[in-house]
Amino acid sequence: METTKTDGVVREAAGNVKEAVGSIAGDVGLQMEGKVDELRGRAQQLCADASDIARDAMSSSPLAVLAGAVAAGFVLGALWSANRRDDV
Q: Any idea where the CsbD-like domain is (predicted)?
């Protein structure tokens, strides 16, 4: 997972540079592309961190994670079922 986080850092830095160049050149399109790349980099870093946290939680307490997954599935199923009854 470290390469994904590293890729995110690189993408965020490249986005910052692209946004700065667009700002200096007065190119709004380039600024927006830079901002999008920066946000994609941050999102990639957050996903890498979340997967690391999930992996650690699963290895330290697998039954608690399983119980949480079952509870989330039950809630989603109940919401989906209630939504289907409203449509009929």
A: 5-55
Specify whether the CB–CB gap between 10 and 3 falls below 8 A.
no
Whether 15 and 27 have beta carbons less than 8 Å apart is answered as no
Domain ranges of the chain: 2-87
CA 66, distance to chain mean position in Å, is 22
- pTM attached to this predicted model: 0.64
CA-based torsion, 33, 38, 44, 46: positive or negative:
negative
- Given a contact cutoff of 8 angstroms between Cβ atoms, the answer to whether 48 and 5 are in contact is yes
* CB 39, CB 15: distance < 8 Å: yes
Q: What are the CA-CA distances from residue 66 to residues 1, 9, 57, 61 (Å)? A: 23, 32, 10, 9
**Distance from C-alpha of 33 to C-alpha of 22, rounded to nearest angstrom:** 9
